[in-house]
Amino acid sequence: MNHFLAPPRFDRYTCYPESFGHYYDDPSHSERRAAGQIDCYNLHIVYGGKGYLRIGDRLVALEAGTGFLYGPGVEQSYYAEPSDPWDIRWVHFQGTGVGKLLQGKGEEGVWTFSWRNADAMLELWQELLGHGVPSLTGGEARLSALLYEILALLVQNAEDEQGQQAAGRRNSVIEAAEWIRSHSGQPLTLEQMANEADCSVSHFSRQFHRLIGKTPIEFLTECRIVQAKIMLVSTKLPVNVVADKVGFASSAYFIRRFRLLEGVTPEQFRRIRGG
């Protein structure tokens, strides 16, 4: 089952499928493309069976719960295991914001990953595969939104490494992020945050940035600013009191960070948004 689409009527979608489909029970499924031969992203998700990627001189086996992504122009070589061909969903896509959304994955070479903790993708893929030619009343927007959700889930949940140890590390960092959010009003240190994930400061910082998309300190500051915005519009507390309640050591630093992130001072935000 393969679908090929015309370019969307509007070119401002973050991402949009060029083609997509589903291969299963096909022992002859094989692709080999030279560098520069295809100018869009190529994503495959393995739901069952087995197949192989050729990466240089290496042969990498992929089974259920794994997948791979090639960026535009990247050399491609993959095929199904003839005795147990993979059940695989695939989509070729482009878009104005794809590179930023995927954080550069697949651009320099194939990205292989595990998606075992992204089960919500199954329902999204089923809906995507159910589409043919999109209607002119919202069909293109829905296709773009479905693809965006799939890619966002991958970025948030996919692991470069395999196995329970990698999944455990990811979960501990996510749990630490939730802990930071719920304790953001306290004077937290980077060491305390890392302790919540039971790992070193350097490892925690790297993993946190990879999974959350920002440093732990940036995330903590963001959580505090969100709480400050709520207080500014729902109370008449002075700015220095708001700064203290949300965890900033000084009101001057709070005002500086608030203006940097929001483009206005806390008092200006209160006048604009506080009714």
UniProtKB/TrEMBL annotation:
<keyword id="KW-0805">Transcription regulation</keyword>
<dbReference type="InterPro" id="IPR020449">
    <property type="entry name" value="Tscrpt_reg_AraC-type_HTH"/>
</dbReference>
<feature type="domain" description="HTH araC/xylS-type">
    <location>
        <begin position="174"/>
        <end position="272"/>
    </location>
</feature>
<dbReference type="InterPro" id="IPR003313">
    <property type="entry name" value="AraC-bd"/>
</dbReference>
<dbReference type="InterPro" id="IPR018062">
    <property type="entry name" value="HTH_AraC-typ_CS"/>
</dbReference>
<dbReference type="InterPro" id="IPR037923">
    <property type="entry name" value="HTH-like"/>
</dbReference>
<dbReference type="Pfam" id="PF02311">
    <property type="entry name" value="AraC_binding"/>
</dbReference>
<keyword id="KW-0238">DNA-binding</keyword>
<dbReference type="InterPro" id="IPR018060">
    <property type="entry name" value="HTH_AraC"/>
</dbReference>
<keyword id="KW-0804">Transcription</keyword>
<dbReference type="Pfam" id="PF12833">
    <property type="entry name" value="HTH_18"/>
</dbReference>
<protein>
    <submittedName>
        <fullName>AraC family transcriptional regulator</fullName>
    </submittedName>
</protein>
<dbReference type="InterPro" id="IPR009057">
    <property type="entry name" value="Homeodomain-like_sf"/>
</dbReference>
